[in-house]
Design goal:
By secondary structure, this protein is of the alpha+beta class. It has one helix and six strands, in the order E-E-E-E-H-E-E. It has one helix at about 55-70, and strands spanning about 15-20, 25-30, 40-45, 50-55, 80-85, 95-100.
């Protein structure tokens, strides 16, 4: 199987405005655009102390795209993507997941 995906370019000058749950307008500077496959479905749950992610084919491709976007050289350490009921998950009972780029992930485990 061969799948082609487009990895969005990281634009450090990009500005995006959104309104948070408190009604405040927030301006984010920089960041990645997100690419999601049509019809994606993703959910998560905790089972025996392990985070489990379930996704259909479109969801798995979308998750791969998010990870490849973070892997770009122009993306700085600490940049992260939230996967939760407001951004990716249809199931409000799925625990949120944060995927973060760092050069030394082990230091956070100590």
């Amino acid at each position: 199987m061969k799948i082609s995906i487009r990895i969005p370019r990281n634009d450090p000058q990009r500005e995006v405005e959104y309104t948070n749950v408190d009604g405040e307008t927030i301006t984010l500077v920089g960041g990645l655009e997100s690419e999601w496959e049509m019809g994606y479905q993703i959910s998560s749950f905790i089972d025996h102390n392990a985070l489990c992610i379930q996704a259909n084919k479109s969801g798995l491709i979308s998750l791969a795209n998010q990870c490849l976007s973070l892997a770009q050289e122009s993306v700085y350490d600490g940049h992260h993507i939230h996967l939760d009921e407001w951004n990716a998950f249809d199931d409000e009972n799925s625990p949120g997941i944060i995927i973060e780029k760092t050069q030394d992930p082990i230091k956070y485990l100590k």
